[in-house]
Amino acid sequence: MSTGFRADLLIRGARVRTLTGPGHTGTASSVALWRGRVLAVDEDVPARRVLDLDGAVVVPGFHDAHNHMAWYGLSLQEVDLRVPTLDDLYAAVAERAAGLPADAWVVGAGYDENKVGAHPDRDGLDRAAGGRRVWLKHTSGHMCVVSSAVLGDLGLADAPREVAGGLVVCDAAGRPTGLLQETAQSLLSDLVLPYPVDTLVDAVERAGRAYLAEGLTSVVEAGVGGGWIGKSPVEVAAYQAARDAGRLPVRVELMVASDVLHEVPAHADDGFGPGLGLGLDLGIRSGLGDDRLSLGPVKVFSDGSLIGHTCAMTEDFSDTPGVKGYLQSDRDAIVGRIVAAHRAGWRVATHAIGDAAIDLVLDAVELAQRVAPRPGVRHRIEHFGVARPDQVVRAAALGVVPVPQGRFVGEIGDGMLRALGPERAGWAYRGRSLLDAGLPLVGSSDRPVVAGAPLLGMHDMVNRRTESGAAIGPEEAVTGLEALVAYTHGSAYASGQEDTRGLVAPGFVADLAVLSDDPATVDPEGLRDVRVLATLLGGEVVHEA
Ligand SMILES: [Zn+2]
Q1: How far is the CA of 444 from the centre of ligand 1 (A)?
Q2: What pTM, to 2 d.p., does this model score?
Q3: How many domains is the chain partitioned into structurally?
Q4: Which residues span the domain enclosing 154?
Q5: Predicted confidence (pLDDT) at residue 141 exceeds the cutoff of 90
Q6: Chain-wide mean pLDDT for the chain?
Q7: Ligand 1 centroid vs 9 CA: distance in angstroms?
Q8: CATH number of the domain that 34 lies in?
Q9: Do 83 and 188 lie in a common domain?
Q10: CA 66–ligand 1 middle distance (angstroms)
């Protein structure tokens, strides 16, 4: 270092998990940061500020490869439906309704019929909310229940309507119960969407502040702009507005809902090619942006939810004989969409939970690579929920990156076990077998589907036990170090960012989490009790416990 040079910050006296080197076993005791990046590791660099951590653990900032940031931020102000019984659920709705005008909506999120015993229904909601409009979102996001007033607005009060890729659920007498599955939720869109940009900025900031407290510095938002998952056609503008106002607390990569892609005409000679064909106006596609806010893959939905029994399986669910779930649209249409997006230069992230849906996506990627080879593109399968052994091998051969949610095992694993039965339990949200196949292991939560703190996710990847204590595919458990690598380097890899994020190494972003204990060596049961003491993003301390 030349005379007079000073790093911005020297962190020392720390147990640093750099995650560099063979097996990601690298450690250090000091890190120097300069201009938002890591300058040096284990070098005595002169610095303007010195932070002595007295033995605390430093790891790369956590990276959630699949979450729903605006949805989570909004849910923080909605009625919390994570309650033990249906009576508690109706009571929570009644309590919120009591404080609202008669024409106000009651919106709640997070119920799971596997936990409260059944879906709530319109009659119960009408009683609880005094006839108000009520909209309760299932924890999976793949279905919701509405009150009679909302059904009336939709013209569904007395009889259902056919919806491709979804279902208006009825009772034995043919009367809608209020439950709307999958694409049937889109019927609500005209009533509730779009959200104002200001509301989304508030939601994104609220979510981001919670993330920093959990050591998260990077997240992927898994679907904006359209479909049943999007919150506004100008959702990217909301993230840009948040960023411009200094209200985007973490680094965000946005997946674009495939519903908003369209044919973009260009010069006849262009044919297919990067940014051409299926895309957004101006030819915008995956990769645009910077290290704070960028456009990631296009998000395609192929099927639904495992605990909701709407994901597409090759064999029946164990607890509902005759039911195999369903695809969200015609098989050829989904394959065609994936291939066209691939040819137009997009990275494609397809939601596939059931093994029949996973077959479809693997077929589509194989076809896409045959008609237009794009080596190293890293298409993703979101969830990879119920993957047969042959599908693990095939994903590795095709270079497809699975993005499973190890956290599901802990929070909704009992419902998963019932749906799958014992023989298929080990196929659920795999860990070890992905590593054995040479695939990267990626850390993600799908928050707000489940609680999204990375240390909770790591705990479940290591312990593979449900809330009630049942083991799910214990052979899929990974070590604490492997789980830590998943939530840092692995997620960075899934986003093609492994050269700048996910390790503590010179040139990497200075995103760090300071922890009370080392996830790689702490007792497995104790993983969820590891505390986040501080979070740094771009070299700045952005959270202190
Ligand atoms: Zn999701």
Answers
A1: 10
A2: 0.93
A3: 2
A4: 79-192
A5: no
A6: 95
A7: 37
A8: 2.30.40.10
A9: yes
A10: 6
